[in-house]
Design a protein that fits this description.
Order of helices and strands: EHHHEHHEHHEHHEEHHHEEHEHEEEH
CATH architecture: Alpha-Beta Barrel
CATH topology: TIM Barrel
Strand order of the largest sheet: 1-2-3-4-5-7-9-10
Largest sheet: 8 strands, parallel, barrel
Number of domains: 1
Bound molecules: 6-O-phosphono-beta-D-glucopyranose
Distance between the termini: 6 Å
Number of strands: 12
CATH class: Alpha Beta
Number of helices: 15
Oligomer: single chain
Length: 480
C-alpha cells in the first residue's frame, strides 16, 4: 500500500472505459447494421490492414475471424458487468453508442427503436448504482453503408446523417446522460483513416487532401453536436477526445527539437486547437500550403466552429513518443502506430508501447497550459497477457504497478494546478483490442474467459487489480 495524500477533488469521476464495438457483440441483434469494426478481422493482420491503403470493408470468413461480432457479449450481460463496476465503486462508466444500433445504415430518416431502447436499459442500470454514464458518440463505429455508398467522412453529406444521429440520442437520453464526447481519438485519422475517418486511401491516391477534408467535415459535425447538446441538455458537458502522446526530442540537436515540436503540434494539437479554440491554428495553414491541401468549406462553417467549442478535453494516454528528424528502421519504436524512436529511458509493454507515467503529468500540464479547459483522462492502461492460476486467481501486479504510477502522476499534475475531472482507465473489463483484434491483450480489472481462437465461456472473474482499484476509489486516490 502506498499512501500519497489526497489530491483528488471531491466528486472526481473514477471509473473505467470501453467502446461498444469492442464489447457488445450482438452485432446483428436489435436490427443493428454493420459498422467498421464488424468488418475488421481479428489478429495481427488487423494492424497492417489499418495502415495499408486499399481495404474493401468486406467480411471474408474463409480467411479471417471477426472477434467484434461477439465481443464479450455485453449486449446480453450488461447487468452482471455493471454490478461488478458498482462493486468496484465506479463513479463513472465511459461507453460508446454504436451509431449502427440507432441508424443501422446511417442514412435512414428515423432511428431504430430497438437500438434506442437498449441504451436506455444500460443507462438505467448504471443510474441504479449511482454511476454516471460518459458517452462517446462515435468510437470507430461508423456504419459500413456510409463508407461504401458515400466514402465516409470525405463526403459532406455524412455531416447531415451525423446531425440526425446526435439529435436522436440527445433527445432520447437528455435526462440520463450529462457527459458526452464527440469523436474518439479524432487525431487517429492522421494515421488510421479507416477507423477514424471511415475510408481507406486508394492505392495510388495522395492522402493529404481527402484526409484533411474529412477532418473538416468532422469538425463541423462536432460543432453541430456541441451546439445541439447545449440546447437540448443545458446542464451537460461535451468534450472532444484526442490521443495525447507528448513528443520528446531524442536529443538536444535543434533539428530534432524542431521536428518533435512539429510532430507534437500536428498530431497532438491540431484537432484540439480547432475543437477547443474554434479555429484552424496558424501552423496548419503552412502545412496545408506545403501539401497542396485546399479545404472546401461552406458559408458559416468557420463561425460555427468558433461559436461552439467543446467544454472539456477528454484524452487517452498510453505512452509518450520520442522523435528524431532522420531515423533508421532499427531505431524505430515497435508497438505504436504513432511512430517515433525507442526511448532509452523507458521500458515497453509486451506490445512495445513504452511505459511512461511521468509523460502523463507532462501531458496534463501541456494541455492545461495551452487550453485552460477542464481535462478528463478517459483512457489509460496496460495491455498485458494475464495468467489464471490453478486456484482461479489472476495476480496482475504489473497492471497495478502501471496504474499506480499513472494515478500518482495525475495527483502531481493536480498539485501543479491542472483541473482534472476524472479518470476512466481503459478496458476496465477485458475486451477486444482495437488495433490487433486480440482478446489476449487484456486491460481489465475483470477477466473474461475468451481467447484469440474464439474459445472460452465468457465467464467473468475478479483480478487482483479489481480489489486494488476498489480501494483506490474508496479512498479517493489516497491509498494507492
Ligand atoms: C485507444 C482506443 O486507441 O486505445 C481504444 O480508443 C483501444 O479503442 C485502446 O482499445 C487500446 O488500444 P488496443 O489496440 O490495445 O486495443
Amino acid at each position: 500500500m502506498n499512501t500519497v495524500g489526497n489530491k483528488f477533488p471531491e466528486g472526481f469521476l473514477w471509473g473505467g472505459a470501453t467502446a461498444a464495438n469492442q464489447m457488445e457483440g450482438g452485432f446483428h441483434e436489435g436490427n443493428k447494421g454493420l459498422n467498421i469494426a464488424d468488418v475488421l478481422p481479428g489478429g495481427k493482420e488487423r494492424l497492417s490492414i489499418l495502415q495499408e491503403p486499399g481495404f474493401n470493408f468486406e467480411i471474408d470468413k474463409s480467411k479471417y475471424s471477426y472477434p467484434n461480432h461477439e465481443g464479450i457479449d455485453f449486449y446480453h450481460r450488461y447487468k452482471e458487468d455493471i454490478a461488478l463496476f458498482a462493486e468496484m465503486g465506479f463513479k463513472a462508466f465511459r461507453m460508446s453508442i454504436a451509431w449502427t444500433r440507432i441508424f443501422p445504415n446511417g442514412d435512414e430518416l428515423e432511428p431504430n427503436e430497438a437500438g434506442l431502447a437498449f441504451y436506455d436499459r444500460v443507462f438505467d442500470e448504471l443510474h441504479k448504482y449511482g454511476i454516471e454514464p460518459v458517452v462517446t458518440i462515435s468510437h470507430y463505429e461508423m456504419p459500413v453503408n456510409l463508407v461504401k455508398e458515400y466514402g465516409g467522412w470525405r463526403n459532406r453529406q455524412v455531416v447531415t446523417f451525423f446531425e440526425r444521429y446526435v439529435n436522436a440520442i440527445f433527445n432520447s437520453y437528455k435526462n440520463k446522460v450529462k457527459y458526452w464526447m464527440t469523436f474518439n481519438e479524432i487525431n487517429s485519422g492522421l494515421v488510421m483513416p479507416i477507423m477514424g475517418l471511415g475510408f481507406s486511401i486508394h492505392k495510388e491516391e495522395d492522402r493529404y487532401q481527402p484526409t484533411f477534408q474529412a477532418f473538416h467535415h468532422q469538425f463541423v459535425a462536432s460543432s453541430i453536436a456541441v451546439k445541439a447538446c447545449h440546447e437540448i441538455i443545458p446542464d451537460s458537458k461535451i468534450g472532444c477526445m484526442v490521443i495525447f502522446a507528448p513528443v520528446y526530442a531524442f536529443d538536444s540537436n535543434p533539428e530534432n527539437v524542431m521536428f518533435a515540436l512539429q510532430e507534437e503540434r500536428l498530431f497532438n494539437n491540431f484537432c484540439a486547437d480547432v475543437q477547443v479554440r474554434g479555429e484552424y491554428p496558424a501552423f496548419i495553414k503552412r502545412y496545408f500550403k506545403e501539401h497542396g491541401i485546399e479545404l472546401e468549406t461552406q458559408d458559416g462553417d468557420l463561425e460555427l466552429l468558433k461559436e461552439n467549442p467543446v467544454d472539456y478535453i477528454g484524452f487517452s494516454y498510453y505512452m509518450s513518443r520520442t522523435e528524431k528528424k532522420v531515423k533508421t528502421e532499427l531505431e524505430a519504436s515497435q508497438g505504436n502506430i504513432i511512430g517515433g524512436v525507442k526511448n532509452p529511458f523507458l521500458k515497453a509493454s509486451d506490445w512495445g508501447w513504452e511505459i511512461d507515467p511521468e509523460g502523463l503529468r507532462i501531458s496534463l500540464n501541456k494541455l492545461h497550459d495551452r487550453y485552460q479547459v477542464p481535462l478528463f483522462v478517459v483512457e489509460n492502461g496496460l495491455g498485458a497477457y494475464d495468467n489464471v492460476e490453478e486456484d482461479g486467481s489472476i495476480n496482475d501486479d504489473y497492471r497495478i504497478d502501471y496504474l499506480r504510477e499513472h494515478i500518482k502522476a495525475m495527483g502531481e499534475a493536480i498539485e501543479d494546478g491542472v483541473e482534472l475531472m476524472g479518470y476512466t482507465s481503459w478496458g476496465c473489463i477485458d475486451l477486444v483490442s482495437a488495433s490487433t483484434g486480440e482478446f489476449s491483450k487484456r486491460y481489465g480489472f475483470i477477466y473474461v474467459d475468451k481467447h484469440d481462437d474464439g474459445s472460452g465461456t465468457l465467464e467473468r472473474k475478479r483480478k487482483k487489480s479489481f480489489y486494488w482499484y476498489q480501494n483506490v476509489i474508496g479512498t479517493n486516490g489516497e491509498q494507492l
